[in-house]
Specification:
- By secondary structure, the chain is of the alpha+beta class.
- The protein is 32% helix and 19% strand.
- The protein contains 9 helices and 11 strands.
- The strands form 4 sheets. Strands 1-2-3-4 form a 4-stranded antiparallel beta sheet, sandwiched between helices. Strands 6-5-7 form a 3-stranded mixed beta sheet, covered by helices on one side.
- β1 and β2 form a beta hairpin.
- The longest helix has 19 residues.
- The radius of gyration is 25 Å and the shape is globular.
- The protein starts with 16 loop residues before the first helix and ends in a 5-residue tail after the last strand.
């Protein structure tokens, strides 16, 4: 059997001293309450795992009554975070995760390992050097290390995977008249917009923000946001034929740079009216002892039927072909 080729070790950018220093500064920007509660979670061992699956981000799971998924991104020297909790970002779970990642890196653990796994001692180190089992264990570890060095680097793996952006001329999320939001693509300017294939969605989850730089800025921001939501959705993923789930839509709407890539039902750019619908309480026509709430437009019209199209980060309604 041929000897495996040698490869220098690859240090992911999220593990560099510069990334760790930037993460410390980012954590300092959290609110005092989020820092205190996040520190309590970290010290209680609530961070179940931290794993760097790629060069530019790492994933984590935090147990806080339920298991929450998080992704922290490192791009151009800055960190951003997404959490599956209702807060969504800059939360106590993200702070606890940041502390766990710093401890993980400074503790010297390998990429893709749970914190609890890093304390394990190798069998060869635990046995006396003259023990036959130790000799065999050392030989196995040497061979395993050789094969690990022979594995493709993250850069080579990225180059070998299919690129979902090839031949892509347009990316948007469009609001339908029914109040649901859908991902749409088109192959060339002037071509019809279509729903993506499932394999496109699966490939999207492997991309990093820098991979979208060939797109216009708003579409690049939208692509990066959708890639994040694909990863947060886990094995369930996103269904390209179904409407965006509420959590994914919230993540997209929170990405203000992606707003110009969102479309109205007629295909025009999404415009959110500066004057919102206002709730108004009136006496119930059937029971004078009760009040009924209704929405009123800025011009005084009763906004019926107004469709709730998004609940977070702020309630949005579709009424009279306007949002």
């Amino acid at each position: 059997m041929a000897a495996p080729r040698s490869r220098p070790p690859v240090v992911r950018s999220v593990r560099t001293p510069e990334a760790v220093a930037a993460l410390r500064l980012r954590l300092d920007e959290f609110t005092p309450a989020a820092r205190q509660r996040g520190r309590d979670l970290f010290q209680a061992g609530a961070v179940l795992s931290v794993r760097s699956a790629a060069d530019h981000y790492f994933n984590a799971e935090v147990n806080d009554e339920t298991v929450l998924g998080l992704t922290l991104f490192y791009n151009r020297g800055a960190w951003t975070c997404r959490c599956s909790c209702p807060v969504g970002e800059n939360c106590k779970h993200a702070y606890a995760t940041g502390l766990a990642w710093i401890a993980d890196v400074e503790g010297g653990s390998r990429d893709g390992r749970d914190p609890g796994e890093t304390a394990a001692t190798s069998l060869a180190a635990a046995l006396p050097a003259t023990d036959p089992a130790s000799v065999q264990a050392r030989a196995l570890e040497t061979e395993l290390s050789g094969w690990l060095r022979a594995l493709p680097s993250p850069e080579e793996a990225a180059a070998a995977r299919p690129d979902p952006l090839t031949g892509l001329a347009g990316l948007r999320v469009r609001l339908e008249i029914t109040g649901r939001w859908f991902i749409e693509l088109r192959a060339a300017p002037g071509k019809p917009w279509k729903a993506p294939a499932q394999k496109w969605i699966s490939a999207l989850a492997t991309l990093r923000p820098a991979d979208f730089e060939s797109l216009p800025p708003a579409e690049a921001a939208l692509g990066a946001a959708l890639a994040t939501e694909c990863r947060l959705a886990g094995s369930a993923g996103l269904n390209p034929r179904a409407a965006l789930p509420a959590a994914a839509l919230e993540g997209v709407l929170r990405t203000t740079a992606a707003r110009p890539a969102l479309a109205m039902p007629d295909g025009g750019p999404l415009v959110i009216e500066p004057s919102p619908l206002v709730p108004e309480a009136i006496v119930s026509p059937t029971d004078p002892a009760q009040l009924t709430l209704r929405l009123v437009a800025p011009d005084g019209r009763v906004a019926e039927p107004a469709k709730l199209v998004a609940l977070r980060p702020e309630p949005l309604y579709l009424f009279d072909h306007r949002v």
